[in-house]
Fold this protein.
Amino acid sequence: MSDTSLWVDRHARSVGGDRIIDRPAPRFAPDELATVVSPPLSAEPPDPAAARSPIALEVHGSLSEIEPEWRAFEARADCTPFQTWDWLDNWQRHIGTRNAITPAIVVGRGPDGEVLVILPLAIERRGLIRRLSFLGSALCDYNAPLIAEDFSGRLGRHGFAALWHRAIALLRADRRFRFDLIDLQKMPETVGRQTNPFVVLPVHPHPCGAHVATLDADWDRFYAARRSASTRKRERRQLKQLAEHGDIGFLDVRDPDEIRRTMDVLMAQKARSLSRMGVEDFFRRPGYRDFFHAVAVSASNHVSRLDVGSTMAAANLGLKFRDCYYLVLSSYYDGDIARLGPGRAHLHELIRHAIDAGFRRFDFTIGDEPYKRDWSDTEVGVLDHLAAATLRGGIAVAVTVAYRRSKRFIKRTPALWRAFSKIRAFATALS
């Protein structure tokens, strides 16, 4: 391994509370490099000149230590709503703490102490394997860093690879943050207006894609552009038939008690839908229901539903972030009116709501469901990075790579995916 790949001054490193700090300093001595991650973690060896970045790194084991700075930085940084303080703090309080997941928040500062980058990472144990992943990864549709608007320009082509190696060395210098492998999933190719800096690492496509619709300023014009005349006629007919079962109303739910009631129904409907597909009901996992209840009442998030008479026919949880509406959870009633498309009718009203509110994009987030492709004009490139840090981690990586390649191949082959889905649903019904 080249001694230009990783460097940190262990004598200059300060330790205080849950924070360790690395300032740009001389390189490791060769005999110190044995415990540091090997070069395959980066796309190519970092440029020695780029390694002398003036960005100082520090690691925090607690989110609360940097709450004011995080909140201030997210307001101006390029990021997604899944990297905001509220989303990740709720995740850690309701889910992470219950599962003994340790935050490992890497903060990079410029010469004047200003925050330039936050890497919201975590250490998660699965059996004997400790993984370095994004904090809240499973419930974040997009995992990414928070980066200053000029971050890419400051580092240049190879700068982030060098900074990443320094971050890895800094984490491994503290026993709390030791890990066997790095598993970074669902990373979008871009973060705001910049290329995601993580794309300089060896990456491969995530099994699922993500889809975004560019909105028009007028719902009727947008609807006509996305649906054929015959489809619009059929959908109008079904809407009239739906109205025969009761008055139809689109509700923008704001009262906390109504939000909770709506979320309870949404999760119950979603659980039944997952069961029919043979998929685990993740709302049963410890803390998941509490997490979604907590984020639903946030002023920046959005809960809505479609009522047909006294029946809650469809519901959703969305995130409002800058110029984009993110659809996170949606469900529909699976009773006698399901054939009339209450979920589709709700989606129409939801997109209309987003247009009226001035949003320019509607993000359907992770998933390749046909309806997402029908409405969208952009597919978001979503990438994964997987690398071993120990021999034990190397075995886990080999197994994981084989599994994920097979999963992606099946999902990207319509005939195989249909067959797999039917077998999965049939097996669940038998059990």
Notes: The chain is about 35% helix and 25% strand. The chain has two domains: 14-206+382-416, 211-380.
